[in-house]
Each structure stands twice: as structure tokens, then as C-alpha cells.
Amino acid sequence: MASEAHGAEEGGLVFHPMDQFIIKPLFGGDTISWYTPTNATLWMALAVVAVIAMMVIGTRSRAIVPSRSQSIGELAYGFVYKMVEDVAGKDAVKFFPYIMTLFMFIVFANFLGLIPMSFTPTSHFAVTVVLAMLVFLTVTIVGFVKNGAAFLGLFWVSSAPLALRPILAIIEVISYFVRPVSHSIRLAGNVMAGHAVIKVFAGFAAIAVVSPVSVVAITAMYGLEVLVSFIQAYVFTILTCVYLKDALHPSH
Amino acid sequence: MATETHAAEAASAPGMPQLDFSNWGNQIFWLVLTLLAIYFVLSRIALPRIAAVLAERQGTITNDIAAAEELKAKAVEAEEAYNKALADARAEAQRIVAEAKAEIQAELDTATDKADAEIAAKAAESEKAIAEIRAGALEGIKDVANATAVELVAALGGAAEDADVTEAVDARMKG
Amino acid sequence: MEGQLAHIGAGLAAIGSGAAAIGVGNVAGNYLAGALRNPSAAASQTATLFIGIAFAEALGIFSFLVALLLMFAV
Q1: Which of A47, B90, B106, C66 is the most core-located residue (most Cβ within 10 A)?
Q2: pLDDT (average), residues A66-82
């Protein structure tokens, strides 16, 4: 990259697609200790503010006939509630606030990250790995607390022929432990890929002839990114529900 | 290896900022804080509020539907009552008509009977009068016949007893 | 030299993105075919559709990630 970029810079093209993900201290300085407020902190805080604005301030009137802001909050509530109920089952409703938290955080972090010059917390593996590990640990602990050793039946496919079962068990165990990896990398990878691609297209805009194409491409990618932002939040949430269903009803 | 490119912005950042593990602690700290904040805001304030609003709306809708059903039932009842009243009125009217008809019929019958009786009485009277007249006429005829017979007998030169002539005439007339 | 080999590797890894695109198209196309045959059952399967797309796309993202790692981190 270094040598390539240097070569390109001489030719007028500069690609720094990953620079937008650099974490910087918010109030100057170079060192980042564990408590330093950074740009990541700022955009996470803005996500919290957005959640409060939508779910608390928007619904403050508690009207029977909802206002616009209130119906958006109710829509989000109903959307996630129905998802939890349909996918994970009625007894998973007590996890609804937890799942709603994940959904609201991811969706607002993603959407706020689409603002130009902003920072996307969910593009960092540090964030998504924590989210995925939270889900993984919750599901595993709930599974063992609820079902005891019967939870291990999740790996023992009783509908398969007996000879195949040990092999399937190994595959199931591997896929179970790969879950948090794919869960976290899917989210961060999607968000990062979209932002990096937009940045690469923006780099091409330095050439005058190409720049209109570049602008159109950026617009198209931006539209796709809006879609991906929501779909990734949805997918993260629905997979959480699916895993939760496995924990609550492990029978295959 | 990317240090030269990024030298201006981040002195020691590796190629992918995501893999710079030195700031993971920082991010995880703030993330956990963020998630806790969202969780408490949602679970303490927002979600119970929205759940209450939705339940209240559901209740209102259910009540309204129940009220509408009740009103509908009332309307059906009212219609039934109306129909019943209509049928009653019709039956009453028919009864009155039938009664009136029967009354008129009875009056008519009595009038007819009375008229019949009067006619019969008059007819009987007339018959009696006719019979009297006829009887009177027969007596007259008998007298005339007697007289005529006596005269005839006298004219023929016979002498006849009145009683005999009368007897003969009577026999003749009866025959 | 080593860096250039890494770039070749990154390019090869990017093929995986195309393969993932085929996979996602397969999922969406089969969903659409099924939905047109039985539209009444389509709405209940959108969740499955998105899960399928997510799984197919995740593997493409993995290859993208390998490309990025070769480009920037090796």
C-alpha cells in the first residue's frame, strides 16, 4: 500500500480508504488511554442521544392517536417486538429490552455513520466483537441455565443416522463457536466495505474526466449503504433471535 | 508497512485502524457505557411507555368495537320492535275490519229477517184477503147459479124446489 | 517483492466477493421464484430470506476482509 500510494500520489490520485476509521482523541493529544473521549465516543454518544430523541422525547405525549414522531417510535417497537415473538418464541419476550438495545444501537450507529465526515463505531471489530460476544455469552448461559445438560442436545442431531451423528456433532460445535466470529465480522465488514468503497470512488474524482462517473457511483453506493445499514442491523437482531430460540428450545 | 502514508495523520497506526489493538480497551469501555445507557433508557422509560400506549390503544379500540356492536344490537332490536308493532297494528286493523264486517252482517241479517217477516205477514194477509174475496165470489156464483137454475127450471116449465136446485147446483159446481 | 505478492493475493481474495454475489443472487432469485409460485407464503419467509442473504454475504465479506488484511496489515 505504502509504495503504491506514494506512486499514485505523484500521479494525482490519493487513496486512503481506511483513514476514515482512525480513532482520534476528541480534544487533541496523541495517547489513547481507556477513558479518553475519542471520535468513537462522540458518535456512540450521538447514537444514545438519537435513541433518546426517538424513543423517549418522541413518545412523550403518550397519545392514543400518535403523532408522527410517536408512530415512528411505536413502529420500531412493534418491528423488534414482532421479530422477537415470531422468531424466538413467546417466552423470549423477557429478552426484548436487551435485543431492542442492540438493534437501536446498531441502527443508529450505522445511520449516523452515513453522515459525511462522520465516524462509524460499528465499523470497528472492537465494537462488533463485544456485541457478538454479548449475544454469544447470553445465549450460552441462558441455554445451560434453562435446559441444563440437555442444551448439549443442540449438537447431537437425533434425526440423523447414528453413524453420522459424531461427525455432525463436530460440525455443529464448530459452527456454534464460529457464530460470534461471523456475527461480528458480518456487521463490521459490511459497514467497513461500504465506506471504503465510497472512499475509493471519491479518490477517483480527482481526475476531472472521471469525476462525474465517480459522483454517480458514490450516490449509488450511498443508496446501497443506506439499505445495508438497516439490513445489517436487522440481520444482527434476527440472528440474535434465532440463537436465542436455539437456547430456549434446543430440540433439533 | 503503511506507516509512511499515514504518517501525517497517525504516527504509528497500522494499515487497518480496526486491527490497532491499543485502542480496543477504550472503545470497549465507551461501548459498554453506551449500551448500558441505551438499555436503561429503553427498559426504564421508553419501552414501558410505548407498551402502555399500545395497550391503551388496544383497549380503546376493543371498547369502541364493543360499543359499536352494542349499538348495532340495539338497532336490530329496535327494528324488530318496529316490525312487531307493524304486525300488531296490521292484525288489529284486520280484527277491526272483521268485527265491523260481522256487525254489519248481523244488522243486515236482522233487517233482512224483519223484512222477510213483514213480507211474509203481508203476503199472508193478502192471501187471506184473496181467499175471502174468492170465497165471497164463490158464494156469489152459487147464488147466481141457483137463481139462474131456478129461472131456467121455471122457464122450462118445471117447478122445482129451491132446495133441490141448490143441491144440484152444488153438486155440479163441486164436480 | 513480498508486498507485491500480497497485492496479488488481495486481488485473488477479491474473487470471493464475486462468488458471494452469485450466492446472494441465488438466494434472492430462488426466493422470488418461490414467492411468485405461492405469493401468500412469501411474506412469512422474508426473515428466512434475509438470514440466507446474510449468511451468503458474510462469506463474501470474509474474502473482502482477507483482501484488506493482505493490503494493509501484512
Answers
A1: A47
A2: 91
Section B151-162 average pLDDT: 77
DSSP state of A13: -
Strand partners, A38: A25
In a domain, B113, yes or no: yes
In words, the CATH class of domain C2-73 is: mainly alpha
Please state, in angstroms and rounded to a whole number, the distance separating the CA atoms of residues A248 and B17: 38
Residue B14 lies in a domain: no
Longest CA pairwise span in chain C (Å): 59
Helix extents (H) in chain B: 3-6, 24-40, 47-155, 162-174
Section C43-65 average pLDDT: 86
Report helix, strand or coil for C32.
helix
Query: Using one digit for the tens of pLDDT, what is the confidence trace for A213-229?
Result: 999 999 999 999 999 99
Q: Which residue has the higher pLDDT, B20 or B93?
A: B93
Sequence-ordered alpha helix ranges (H) in chain A: 2-11, 39-52, 68-83, 96-112, 125-147, 165-204, 211-248
Assess whether pLDDT exceeds 70 at residue B147.
yes
- Has residue B170 been placed in a domain? yes
- Cβ(A204)–Cβ(A210) under 8 Å? yes
Output the nine-digit C-alpha cell for B171: 153438486
Query: Given this model, what pLDDT does residue A10 score?
Result: 43
Domain residue limits, chain C: 2-73
Tell whether A19 lies on the interface with C, counting CB pairs under 8 A.
Answer: no
| Total domain count, chain B | 1
ipTM of the complex: 0.86
**Within a domain: residue B39?**
yes
- pTM score: 0.74
Is the CB of A89 inside 8 Å of chain C's CB atoms? no
- Using CB atoms, which residue from A1, A59, A131 is nearest to B50? A59
